[in-house]
Amino acid sequence: MSAPVVTFTANPSLDRTLVLPGPLPRGGVTRLAPSSTEPGGKGVNVARAVAAAGSDVRTVLPAADDDPILRALHGLGLPTESVPVAAPARTNYSLVEPDGTTTKLNEPGAPLDGAARAALAAALHRHAEGARWVVLSGSLPPGTPLDWYAELVRSLRDSGARIAVDTSEAPLQALLAAGPDAAPDLLKPNSEELAQLSGVPETHLTTNRAAALAALSELHARGVAEVLLTLGADGALLSCAEGVWSATPPRIAVRSTVGAGDCSLAGYVLADLAGAPPAERLRSAVAHGAASAALPGSAVPTPAQVAALRVEVSGVRTVGLPGTATAPPHTSITTVPAAGRDVH
């Protein structure tokens, strides 16, 4: 029997979080606080967060049978389908300062040959049958065709599962350029990625709500059914057929932003599985992201930690399709701090 959620991570990683005692002095010696290593990659992070909430999930990824990332995933009890590859999973490093500022150092990962890509696609399709959500997340390994996500979305249509994609840069551009038949049911950009897609400067999107709404409407015109725009410390916007909603996160002491966007996506999917309406799906997404940011490293929150947070949700446009009306031209969305961005 298929799990209701299947995640796919083409470029998995071991995420090493290094906790700094203060700002990093270039050229100096820094004595680290206790650090941590977790199995990662954006799809793996989504799967860990879904599992932490008590929902069944399966994650698909490339990894050798003796790769440390598989040992770590098995240690967590996370059901995994792996396609053997020769090279070990990459290691990503996060340097976390006391105020929560996070600097990421990501290795590129090992290339996937055609046989490995075909085996991964077959495994993904096998588990997508009967699933309610398939989540394709993260960067693509070097040498992977940039339109691979678009190809996977098209081929997953007959599974009956809803498809979410969270990626950036060239793979994101290729996904949206491939046409409406390759558009996912849910896209989760941040403000930087929305700027890449719209051609509008990020600072304009984050300070002018009308510009942000116009950019979201353009994504709908290109075939995307729902858009969850994450804004780090400034919350999120959800745009879908029922309307547009804005969420303000609770005040928290940020410990690490690593994986916070992935937890937001998991929170959205979990709420959808429970049959929640759009505003509650957005509330769940922001609560999960905030709860994650309050934890060290790439830890994922428990249901109790999520439930303890209050998230305010308000309707921006709750009648008609997105794009049929405009917000006041100078309504502001507070500029997103760098520490609040997702990093792929």
UniProtKB/TrEMBL annotation:
GO terms for molecular function: ATP binding; phosphofructokinase activity. InterPro entries: PfkB_dom, Ribo/fructo_kinase, Ribokinase-like, Tagatose/fructose_Pkinase. Keywords: ATP-binding, Kinase, Nucleotide-binding, Transferase. Signal peptide: none annotated. The keyword Kinase applies. The keyword Isomerase does not apply. SUPFAM superfamilies: Ribokinase-like. Residues 322-344 are annotated as: Disordered. It comes from the Bacteria. GO terms for cellular component: cytosol. Residues 36-303 form the Carbohydrate kinase PfkB domain. Pfam families: PfkB. Belongs to the carbohydrate kinase PfkB family. NCBIfam families: 1-PFK. This is 1-phosphofructokinase. It comes from Geodermatophilus pulveris.
